[in-house]
Amino acid sequence: MPTTVPSALSGADIVWVLVSAGLVLLMTPALALFYGGLVRAKNMLNTMMMSFVALGVSLVTWVTVGYSLAFGTGSAWIGDFSMAFLDGVDLEARGTVPHLLFMAYQGTFFVITAALISGAVVERIRFGPYVAFIALWGLFVYAPVCHWVWGGGWIASLGALDFAGGAVVHVNAAAAAWVLARTLGPRTDYGRLALLPHHVPFVVLGAGLLWFGWFGFNGGSALAADRLAVLAFVNTLLAPSATILVWMLLDTVRTGRVTAVGAATAAVVGLVAITPAAGLVSPVSALAIGAIAAAPSHFALVWRARTRLDDSLDVFAAHGVGGIVGALLVGVFADPAWNGSYDGLLHGNPSQLAVQALSIAAVFLYSATVSALIVFALRRITSIRVSPRQEAQGLDVALHGEEAYSDGEGAVLVLESSNPAPAVRAAA
Question: Which fold is adopted by the domain 11-381?
Answer without folding.
Answer: Ammonium transporter fold (1.10.3430)
